Amino acid sequence: MVRVANDGPADAQTLPSDVPGRPGASGAGDADPTALATLVEQQRALLEREDEVHRVLVRVVLDGGGLPEVAEAVAGFYGGAAAVTTTDGRLVASAGALDDVADVSALPCFDRTGRLLVEDEPVGWRDPDGPADPTRAFVRIVAGSSELGVLGAFSPGPALSPTDVHVLERAATVAALAITKEQAVAAVEGRYRAEFLRDLLAGRGGEPVDAVSHASSLGWDVDRPLVVVVAETDENDAESTRSADEVRTLQDRFARAWTQAVRARDTSMAVAGFSQEVVVLQPVEEDADADAVLRRVSELVRVVRGDGGGGRRTFTVGVSRTVTSVADLPRAYEEAETAVQVGRQVEGGSGVAHFDQLGIYRLLALVPDSADLRRFVTESLGELATDTSPESADLRHTLSVLIDTNLNVAETARRLFFHYNTLRYRIAKLERMLGPFTTDPQLRLTLALALRVHRMKGL
Fold first, then answer.
1. How many domains does the structure of the chain reveal?
2. Hey, which residues does 90 pair with through a beta bridge?
3. 338 pLDDT exceeds 80?
4. Among residues 314, 280, 297, 322, which one has the least CA distance to residue 194?
5. Cα separation of 51 and 62, whole Å?
6. Where is the CdaR GGDEF-like domain (predicted)?
7. N or C, which end of the chain is more exposed by having fewer CB within 10 Å?
8. What are the tens digits of pLDDT across the range 290-334?
9. Domain enclosing residue 295, as ranges
10. In the 8-state DSSP scheme, what is residue 323?
11. Average pLDDT, stretch 233-249?
């Protein structure tokens, strides 16, 4: 395999000042033929090396290789490692290793979820005298006016030179060819898979046995306990000021992020992107409770979100109850959609909600006029309904814990880290403001509902 030499950039090799025709030249006879010949030979060797790198990579793609093979070839050129990421830093392919790091995603330029910190990493040649690590370089992968990703090279040896980066840019053009080929194939397969999953969720998948068989032909295993996971972007694309092309690009990136996270865990999990959401059929244990299911789903969410940055969109996730038959998927899909909508109202977006944990919020979300709910809160909580002072929020929290513990003063004091007498004083103050809720169960129910409505940030 070709090893890129660190012998300086082609455009950095300058002609001697005494070459005829250049400023300061003393005459044709003063030119050094040997220096000129050496310079020409260096330029010829550099061009030959770049062409050879390009030929090797094109042959990889024409022989059916994809991004993993391109990354492997690039890693060989530099005697180290290479990585291909999406535009926002999600690792798509990597190859090679460094002396002290077997996985490039463990390097400081990646966050703890394995995302390249594209917002911090400069593109192009690094100044070896600068504070950044000079043994890596990144270039953009571009096809026409579309940016497709980032290609990075990691060298265990001397600092990468501008010439190395120039060769890496040639490699990026071939990586663009591999990406566009993969995207074309994935687009056709993705549409077909998405249509079938949409049919399953709408109850149009046919008999369960036939649906399971067809899903298996697509590489999906739906004949096991599942929950439906719906991830919906918090930004309403229908009311967006972005252009249609930009919205489509962002949604495609969102769907690809989920697809990559799912396939990295289990290639037999069904996943597809729709207009503004992504749906995943997450396998779970049949007797798993809501907390256990949420832990598994949250692991996926953490990978998709990363540590932020990179142009990622915020989204809310809803999770259904467990189903054991594809015939129950339509009901589960409705539950997951409800969990998204109610979860966004309660948490204000970017949350993860399980249908079984929505409780009274499911009913409150059915009230068509949120103004009625706000009026109910104001009439029930009085001055505690406002956030004009820290004391209001503090007293609301005290009231909420009291109701949650069924007026158990000792347990409430323990949770709030209050002295018993301090809590007694607060209870008396709350009753002066709200009425005798400690002895009136109907008032207590009203206050409990008002506190729940007050928490619904989406009103």
1. 3
2. 115
3. yes
4. 280
5. 16
6. 206-342
7. N
8. 999 999 999 999 888 876 555 578 899 999 999 999 999 999 999
9. 202-364
10. B
11. 83
Residue 82 pairs in a beta bridge with 95, 153
Task: Indicate if 304 and 206 belong to the same structural domain.
Answer: yes
Distance CA 153, CA 83 (A): 7
Q: Round to the nearest angstrom and report the end-to-end CA distance of the chain.
A: 62
Residues 316 and 442 in one domain: no
- Confidence label for 384 from pLDDT (cuts 50, 70 and 90): very high
Shared domain for 421 and 359, answered yes or no, is: no
Task: Please state, in angstroms and rounded to a whole number, the distance separating the CA atoms of residues 32 and 70.
Answer: 42
Q: How far is the CA of 415 from the CAs of 401, 405, 423, 445, in angstroms?
A: 8, 10, 11, 21
- 407 vs 244, 393, 413, 442, CA distance in Å? 54, 19, 11, 14
Among 364, 398, 417, give the residue marking a domain's end.
364
Do 135 and 68 share a structural domain?
A: yes
**CB neighbour class for 334 (10 Å; exposed up to 12, middle 13-18, buried from 19):** middle
Please check whether residue 3 lies inside any domain of the structure: no
CB 304 within 8 Å of CB 255: no
Rounded to two decimals, the pTM is 0.68
Express each pLDDT in 114-154 by its tens digit: 889 888 888 887 665 444 454 889 999 998 888 889 999 99
Specify the DSSP element, H or E, that contains 447.
Answer: helix 441-455
Tell which of 364, 392, 414 closes a domain.
Answer: 364
DSSP count for the chain of H helices, then E strands: 13, 9
Closest CA to 73 of 62, 64, 82, 86: 82
Structure-block tokens of residue 281: 């059929």
Distance between CA atoms of residues 332 and 321, nearest Å: 6
**Encoded amino acid at 201, one letter:** L
